[in-house]
Amino acid sequence: MKFTCLSKGGGFHFSPCHMLNVSGFRILLDCPLDLSSLALFSPVPVAHQAHESLDTDSVIRKKQKIEKTLDANDLVHAEPWYKTVKNLHLWDASFIDVVLISSPMGMLGLPFLTRTRDFSAKIYVTEASARIGQLLMEDLVSMHMELRQFYGPEDSCFPQWMRWEELEVLPSELRKIALGKDCEELGAWMPLYSAVDVKDCMRKVQTLKYAEEACYNGTLIVKAFSSGLEIGTCNWTINGPKKNIAYISSSIFVSMHAMDFDFLGLRGNDLIIYSDFSSLDKNMENDDTYFDPVTSSSGRDDVSNLEEMAASLLKDDESAEEIEKLVFICACALDSVRVGGSVLVPIDRLGVVLCLLEQMSLLLESSSLKVPIYIISSVAEELLAFTNIIPEWVCKQRQEKLFSGEPLFAHVKLIKERKIHVFPAVHSPELLTNWQEPCVVFCPNWSLRLGPVVHLLRHWCSDPNSLLVLESGVDADIALLPFKPMAMKVLQCSFLSGLSLQKVQPLLKILQPKLVLFPKDLSCKIQISEANMIFLFSENETLRIPSSKESTDIDIATDLASKFRWKTFKQETITRLEGELFMDHGKHRLLSGFQPANSKQQRPLVHWGSPDVKVLLTELSKMGISGTIKQVTDDAKSEDDAKSENAAAIIDIHDPEKALIDVRETGTVIIAANENLASHIVKAVDIVLDGI
Amino acid sequence: MAIDSLVLGAGQEVGKSCVVVSINGKRIMFDCGMHMGYTDSRRYPDFSLISNTGDFDNALTCVVVTHFHLDHIGALPYFTEVCGYKGPIYMTYPTKALAPLMLEDYRKNMDRRGEDEQFTSDHITECMKKVIPVDLKQTVQVDKDLQIRAYYAGHVIGAAMFYAKVGDAAMVYTGDYNMTPDRHLGAAQIDRLQLDLVITESTYATTIRDSRYGREREFLKAVHTCIAAGGKVLIPTFALGRAQELCILLEDYWERMNLKVPIYFSAGLTIQANMYYKMLINWTSQKIKETYATRNAFDFKNVRNFDRSLINAPGPCVLFATPGMIVGGFSLEVFMQWAPSEMNLVTLPGYCVAGTIGHKLMSGKPTKIDLDKDTQIDVRCQIHQLSFSPHTDAKGIMDLVKFLSPKHAILVHGEKPKMATLKERIQSELGIPCYCPANNETVTVPSTHYVKADASETFIRSCLNPNFKFSTYSSVDKSYLDSKYSKAASGLQVSDERVAEGILVVEKGKKAKVIHQDELLLMLGDKKHEVQFAYCFPMHTERLQKTRTEELPSADTLLCDLDKCTLINQLSMKLSNELSDANILDLGEQLQVESFRVSICSKNSCPHRLSHSVHNDSESVFLCCHWSLRDEKLAWKIISIMKSSSPHTT
Ligand SMILES: [Zn+2]
Ligand SMILES: [Zn+2]
Ligand SMILES: [Zn+2]
């Protein structure tokens, strides 16, 4: 097995990406887009700013490469391109056999792959991720169209800003975005795919339920298990004839919206690929080391102990803390609307938005303020409707709502009561007639470069009473450049995006893997005591994992086995196989074939031992075949100096017909002109030799 | 190893479905239904046959319920809350959501019938708390050894067929299913599985249905005629399932015909049910799923709630009333009022359980029905029997059994004589042993067991090396049953001599091993002794003679290379004509078919000749052949072809 980490990603919106080679198949794990790189571009310029951007001053300043604080004019004023996983384009897409997608974010780059010629891989995604991912991509395309209308059609396939002379004059912060740390990432930029590409991509996707078995090529069985991060996100198990692998993406034990992290489903795998990089993004205040992987695993934990551990993992969860964060955001929002300011929430995390909507409307209701909540996005209506028809994908508390006949999320009721208004775009006529300030607006995109957020931010950025709520992880300095000077308050909030390092050790204890692939970047934060079971990986390095099993399991049906003709030699009992070999669901199975067993040849095909010529002659005479022995030593026919019994001999058969048997140490040749006679001689030879 | 199926209900009848299957040490109860035709102890399965001490938690591994119909779930609250079963119970999300509505509606109606309450409202709530919901296709690990999986069954929303696997033994219990899509649900869908046993319903064991469309039109016509004449239409249904299906049908018709006659739902059929249906839209038909965002098919525009005071209100109307089959309660109350008028219409589903009023109305044309000693109902109204049903017909059952090709089949949930006919068909047409046990009987069938062995790399590689006989089977040639889902489930099948090159080696105290025959001797520490055949025989050809006389004036004994090649080439053509499926290799001076080789022998005294005393015929050449044991038959065939090609051979 081979494993290459193509990218460790960055944060919730940019999943890690890996290439895995197992049982001869090449598997790509996730195919995300780095939307944070959009910060390089200027959002849709307002009319007068467009001119300003071309003023000579700024051009000169650029040329002189004077390092100074960034301003909006430093951004690239062009139709944005999109940054894919930097190392992925080094691989030939047509050699990929399987693509496993762990989250809606992990599929945003997929249309780039699926539109390449000769791409033929099977793509597996959970049903819910596929639907949400499709809506996210459609929204991205529609937001991008708005920008394209401004810039007009691209006249060259190689845009101006990508020329070296342009890149060289970029301020260093922006050059880092464009080229990457090692100046190797220019090749990762792509012009956005089209709506048709998205449709084509979705047609090539095979959707799965949680814990549904999908069998690739009869050999690999892949299954998705809930990871708890978002609705539809998952971890994967990959079972081949010789390898059982669990792939752990960013996971959350107890979620307020999505189905919990189903870690028990990942048990029984030899190898774990740990790919939750979320703790890298957090600023760890203390340098505690958390990791003591399975030192005590010499004795297998008994079941009750395991159950206890599992329960403890679920118990001290972070969800209480998450609720506090939501309450805090809502409180800040309330403060703003009280003084007449509006609240802008460009957060693109479905689960967080759904929970915030519930909290926010509760709080507004209790405060008796008549402040409307607007959701503006081309796909909001469909996305919200979708979240209410997927009870199989949400957390337990929300499933309970189904069982008591209530909607899964409160927004259904709130939309009906006209407390929440949903509009496809800022310029939709319904919005214009309904609009009322102060208000609370949820809209894309968190990069602050695309979508309704750009217009609204321009509208409110100079209002000190208004509030902007951002996810942490967004580089606010660069993101807010086009909107400076900002009088608006900014609240940056981090949300739980994966496992905390304290939980890694108890988790591994429960899963009991033989080997763990672990990110090198995280290894400094943990203590590794059993180095032999940990393989550390870093970006763009290929790890080779030796196979733990030499042989392949094969199941032989008992009804077939009972018909085998057994022979005993020394300690072993052996038989030649019959039947038909099936390879399905990663299992080799030998079943009774359609041909009746006795129609097949029953004669041994492989012989060993040394034939005794005299015994052979006796056996032949029993069959009515008679002949004489002519001793010879070697090919030269010197008949008289025969030395040993086992030396080469020729038996001259004269009755019933002429035939010859040339018997030597290593082989016997039967020379006969008649099928029947030849076949009788072979039977006699079978008796004097061992064979099967 | 064996699988025991103890049929506690729905054996040679419809009602109280319940089969307890013991499979490799696990015991699963499939369905826990009640019989609507009885009011005494016969209404429930005889649970004492599972455990006479009443220790059901140890006697059963789990309970699996296929759908929310009372004949499949009606006894569950009694079993868990009164009998005390506390183990796991599995059903699909819709079944878990909707079953309480069905049970509650039934319980309320039973109260009115003045019977002993068998379970309370709290019992239902407590019982449902124990239920673990499952999604379709999800592989559920019940414990270390038992896996179950639900497949879409059509029939009613959330109905599922269940697959169960323990070790090497596997089975499917279908519950009720429909093989054709209807107004709101899709058709049953299942993967091709390796099964020892299929337990299938057989409600329509002998019926073959034609198109559904005509039958729906019949129903709409009957309803329309009645209301056009000012009559009232009573449609007795259970709370969920049929009601929604017929309502979608009527709504659609009302809109098309611009009808204004009210459609009522009785109290049991709360509009609330539609809230559930809306959230469970993913479990409905493709058509309804696609339109949910714009118009939810379960938002009924013409439907209103019914009030008891409206029973004798003037004017036409359509009323959906619970319970179905007119087993009692409100539908009976309305029936008593409306039955005496010939203007009115009662529409009954295709199947009513024996003992119910619905069943009486369908068997013959009764003019009077005795409710009890003192009450008699005059029946003058028209009776329309729906001829479309959410159950599969006989063809569908045959299709499913054929598709799954289990080693054994058991029929339940049907009528004895019809089941016997179907059983015969399954045995004779499909060659699958089939059984129709009565209630409380046990059927035992053998189960698959595999010998586990380690196969060597050489053997596996030699088997998986593609050759021309190699076949991969994929969903392309699978039937419609799994057209959508099993695209990924393709596999390989090796059925040629390469399997026979494998040797199974068993040694005391070690795991069995499969090795390639080439590896055997190394393992045994013995030397191979090759046994081969050889035969060098003379052959006469005229072509040869011609060549020689023209180009080689001296009667040389040696043939030139060109001649050899020409002769070999001639033989090759001859053989390819006669052996159409053989792979003949013409190597110039040598011809090769599998292990058989033939070349022109130029030795003076070849050891493979039986007679050296050729009649010194200069027009003869010797063909030297040798071959190995496995191609014995082929070799003799080739030799006879070669000999026959020249009449002058010795
Ligand atoms: Zn049913
Ligand atoms: Zn039934
Ligand atoms: Zn020869």
UniProtKB/TrEMBL annotation, chain A:
It is found in: Cytoplasm; Nucleus. One of its GO terms (cellular component) is cytoplasm. Its main location: cytoplasm. SMART domains: Beta-Casp. Residues 353-478 form the Beta-Casp domain. Keywords: Cytoplasm, Nucleus. GO terms for biological process: snRNA 3'-end processing. This is Integrator complex subunit 9 isoform X1. It comes from Durio zibethinus.
UniProtKB/TrEMBL annotation, chain B:
SUPFAM superfamilies: Metallo-hydrolase/oxidoreductase (SSF56281). GO terms for molecular function: hydrolase activity; RNA endonuclease activity. It comes from the Eukaryota. InterPro entries: Beta_Casp (IPR022712), INTS11-like_MBL-fold (IPR041897), MBL (IPR050698), Metallo-B-lactamas (IPR001279), RibonucZ/Hydroxyglut_hydro (IPR036866), RMMBL (IPR011108). GO terms for biological process: snRNA processing. Keywords: Hydrolase, Nucleus. Belongs to the metallo-beta-lactamase superfamily. RNA-metabolizing metallo-beta-lactamase-like family. INTS11 subfamily. This is Cleavage and polyadenylation specificity factor subunit 3-II isoform X1. It comes from Durio zibethinus. The lineage of its organism: Eukaryota, Viridiplantae, Streptophyta, Embryophyta, Tracheophyta.
